Amino acid sequence: MQQVFILGVNFSEQKLVSKALQSFYALGPRACERIMAKYTIYRLAKVGSLAPKTVTSLTAELSQMTLDSDARKIMQDNIRRLKDIGSLRGRRHAMGMPVRGQRTRTQTATAKKLNRLDRRN
Amino acid sequence: MASAANAARLNILSCRQVVRLPRVARPQLIATPATSLRRTFTSTTARRAEEPPAPTTDTDAAAAAANAVDPNFADLKAGNIDKLQGSRILDYAAKENGYLDFEEFVSTHHKVGADAPSSIPKVRAFEQTLKEIDEGPRAEKSSFWYDEDDPETNTNEHDEFDEDDITEMAHSKLEEVREMRHYQRLAIWELPLLSKLAKPFEPPTEKQVLRWRYTTYMGDTHPAEKKVVVQFAPDDLGLTPVQAEKLKKLAGPRYNPETEFVKISCESYTHPAQNKRYLSNLVDDLIAAAKDPKDTFEDIPLDTRHHKIQEKPKFPKEWLITEDRQKFLEEDRRRVGLEEYQAIQSGELVDGKQAINNYLAKKMEDEQRKLEEVVEVPKGGAAKPSTWASKSGKARR
Amino acid sequence: MASANSLRSLMRPSIPVAPRLYPIISSSFSTTTALSAVTGRAPKSSVVTSTKMKKNFKKGGGSTSAPMKKPNPGERKAFRKRIQLSNNSALAVEGVEVLKADTLAQSSSAGKMFSIPDEIIDQLRTLEAFKATQAWNLFRKPHFLARKEAVELGSRLENAAKKKEAEKIVLTGSKLSGKSLAVLQAISYALLNKWVVINIPEAQDLTNGNTDYAQIPNTEPAVYSQPVYVLRLLQTIYKANKAVLESLKVEKDWSLTGLQKGNSLAELILTCKESEFAWTTFNALWTELTLPGRPPVLFSLDGLSHISKLSQYRDPAFNLIHSHDLALVRTFVDALSGKTKLPNGGAVIASTSGNNMQFHPSQELVLAQLEAGQSGKPIPTPDPYEKNYDERVYESLKNTSVLRIEGINHDDTKTLMGYWAASGLLRNVVNNHTIREKWALAGNGNVGEMERVALLTMRM
Predict the structure, then answer these.
(1) Chain C neighbors (3+ CB pairs < 8 Å)
(2) Which chains touch A (3 or more CB pairs under 8 A)?
(3) Other CB atoms closer than 10 Å to residue A21's CB: what's the count?
(4) pLDDT at C227 over 80
(5) Looking at the domain assignment, is residue A121 inside a domain?
(6) Would an 8 Å CB–CB cutoff place C214 in contact with chain A?
(7) Facing A34 at nearest CB: one of C211, C213, C318
(8) Do A14 and A51 share a domain, yes or no?
(9) Does C427 sit within 8 Å of B397, measured CB to CB?
(10) Do C91 and B305 touch (CB under 8 A)?
(11) What are the extents of the domains in chain B?
(12) Are the C-beta atoms of residues C122 and C142 closer than 8 Å to each other?
């Protein structure tokens, strides 16, 4: 199977472009829509159907953005800062509990999964 | 005790032959004297019981009443007034207990006493009854509702219900019926009299273009009382079409394009009169502004977005059975019926079931024939299978 | 005795009724029979043995017993869109006239059934003129009823070809009234008369953003082409109009596409193998077809309201692209509005869709105005406070004529139901009673509703 490189990542030709773009951290549906509109890529386009020129410009476009590890680093720094100044939000992050005053009796699965000092995703 | 008063009463009693009114049965009160009469232990003397009232005839009684009662009251001295007072209290007590007055009570009880040989216990019982009635029945300590903190309260009523009266709810129901009847009587007898006050309707004249609405709560105070509403049709104001259109545009959402009325209300002030004054000024201002030729607003279309006209489905006019329509329908039916009759006669009528049956029958026939052919000519069995289409039966197109 | 028995049913059973048998518990979807051992055991034990509770129930991770084969890509869509034009269980109907070139233009053919000749069935199928929602699959052969409107349409097409003018028609009407079928009839007329037919069977495919798009270079304001769709459309045009196109020679110089001077238009289409050149080729073909001396062209589109609104595509500035800025749609709209003249005559037919309708105030207004103008009624005025009017839509439709298609009359119903009965699908005598009953049930003769009432019911 052919592979397409976008920003150093290998994507299968069968993959939807929107899926491929959104696989990058800090690139959600809205940013993805805008990028696709910019290069006139339609909604159901697959990676294989992209012209090589478009792939190059996509890579160039993405390289301008703070994605993946950079974006993660920013977020982790923010959490670290909250923890360092000793705020409640920082502590809640460290405890793996909801940060913004939600209830904790039930429905804290997301917080338990995500909230920590070195947050991954 | 009240012996003097008793004497006076007895006198009166002997003189007046009062007819006893039929009473509503009061169970407790009749029952209690009966039981008390059976008592054998009393402490009071039975002097009154020994004097039965003199049996008199009707005519005598009337005469006696005229003679006897008057002197009795005429001879009242200052000392006797107290006794009379006491007798009044007794009267009252007797009335309370369902007798006409005290005399009647005594006569009732005395009759019993008179029939039996007079005895001290019976007299005492009688006295006891009197006392009880005077003071009210004594609270029974053993009763369920007896309260030590409040010994005076009579709880007997709650305890003793002999199931010979209708319930309180039923009484109130009866009361309700009585009330309704009262109003029905009013409606029948009093309401027709109101028509005397009626005034004939006078349609508003051309000068009365404003419709005012006030609210009254029939003497009650209510926060909505002060509200005043005015309605008017811009076309009634005697404006030119352009001015009327401008007025409609100025009225904005207060203009109803369906009824073509402008409706404005005001409840900003405390009194209806003030609100009315404000509205009347406002209407004057509106008319003045509409008449102002400086800007006629002719370039602005009338905005009716605030009002959605809901169309009510009505019976369509085309569906009405008029004579022409009736004639047409009859003719049409006759024509169609004739055509159908002719189709049946000539066998042109298409029948789905028939078509299927014909097809199946023909198919079976063909197969039969094919089978026979095969039997007859085993070698040359090249009978070309005819297509379905060529066999389909009665299709007429 | 009888009364005693009847009363017994009211009594409670004195003997306790046997408790319900335990259901045979097996996998939810399995074709194998359950083993008897399973039934003997109480179901409770199975609950007890599974001590470990499943924590989260994900959609995918279930243990389905029978692994189902997934349909191949596109298989389900093909199944959904398949057109079946024949039913061997239906009876063949004899004595139905075959459609000829001039049949639909003759007023005498109104109210008759016609069978579609075999030679154009394939062409119609290629052009996707048959719809999956139409009831072709019930009958042995495709037939249609030439109703009054169809004959009017046919005669107008004939006139257009004679006068060498473009007939611009918008077909409207309520749901299931036969607008798409009228388009099919127009296409059949055109095919039988050797016209060139271009058909866009579903306008929504163009504007719902599900096909490839690209900006056409050097266009200001930007116009967008849809290469993949246009390529497929070109192939459709080639297949459907092969005979006509092969007889036409290229007149202009298209050497850029590697075409020789004397080649035919069919070859012009065939030069296009890549979707990149699809639009150029289509443009060239359209230019060639609108040159004088060519056969008349029928350009039809179904689902007008979808090209009257903003499409789902976005331009680089992230604004929604107006449907008229899509090149193919613009070609059609220009033809419909009369901006592009058809010097050889022909017709541009746009059909609204009843079910898949997008409300557009401008379109509603202009169609209502045109209809009122045609019937001499007071013309509705635009609402001054409506903000969603679109001048482009108004302009595109104002030169058309509206042909409203509604229910059919009693006589046509009789013909149609006679055909149904002769096909063995309507198991009734086609008499006055049946006809008027179905006609009334179908909302005054709406054909689609009549099919539902008469053919698609379970009651026989």
Answers:
(1) A, B
(2) C
(3) 25
(4) yes
(5) no
(6) yes
(7) C318
(8) yes
(9) no
(10) no
(11) 3-137, 211-291, 313-349, 351-397
(12) no
CB contacts of C215 in chain A (<8 Å) are 40
Q: Is the CB of C184 inside 8 Å of chain B's CB atoms?
A: no
Give the DSSP H/E element, type plus range, for residue C450. Answer: helix C447-454
Tell me: the pLDDT tens digits for C16-75? 444 444 444 444 454 444 444 433 344 444 444 445 555 565 555 555 567 788 899 889
Residues of C in contact with A43 (CB under 8 A): 209-210, 312
Rounded distance between C-alpha atoms, residue C272 and residue B299, angstroms: 56
> Alpha-carbon Rg of chain B, whole angstroms?
51
Residue A88 lies in a domain: yes
H or E element that contains A78: helix A68-84
Contact A36 C314 (CB under 8 A): yes
What confidence tens digit (pLDDT) does each residue in B274-283 have? 999 999 999 9
Query: Does one domain contain both A7 and A49?
Result: yes
Interchain CB contact of C99 with B (< 8 Å): no
- Within-domain flag for A119: no
- Nearest-Cα residue of chain B relative to residue C429: B351
Residues A22 and A58 in one domain: yes
Domain residues for A42? 3-65
Average pLDDT, chain B: 76
CA angle B208, B214, B216 (to 5 degrees): 145
Residue B374 has pLDDT above 70, yes or no: yes
Considering the four listed CATH numbers 1.10.3720.10, 3.30.160.20, 3.90.1170.40, 3.40.50.300, the one that applies to the domain covering B211-291 is 3.30.160.20
Residues 354-413 of C with CB under 8 A from A: none
**Cα–Cα distance measured from residue B20 to residue B111, given in angstroms and rounded to the nearest whole number:** 14
Domain count, chain A: 2
Chains near B, with 3+ CB pairs < 8 A? C
Whole-prediction pTM: 0.70
Report the b/e string of C128-156 with b at 16+ CB within 10 A.
bbbbeebbbebbbbbbbbbbebbbbbbbb
In CATH, what number is assigned to the domain containing residue A8?
Answer: 1.10.8.50
B217 beta partners = B220
Give me the helix-helix angle, B78-96 and B3-15, nearest 10°. 70
- Please report the ipTM that was assigned to this predicted complex: 0.85
3-state secondary structure of B244: helix
Residues of chain B contacting residue C88, judged by C-beta atoms under 8 Å apart: 388
Regarding whether A58 and A16 lie in a shared domain, the answer is yes
Lowest mean pLDDT of A21-30, B2-11, B215-224, C162-171, name the range: B2-11
Residues A10 and A51 in one domain: yes
Give bridge partners of residue C403 from the DSSP assignment. Answer: C171
Would you put residue B270 in left (φ > 0), alpha (ψ -120 to 50) or beta?
A: alpha
Q: Do chains A and B have 3 or more beta-carbon pairs under 8 angstroms? A: no
Residue carrying structure tokens 């009251």: B73
Q: Does C215 touch chain A (CB under 8 A)?
A: yes
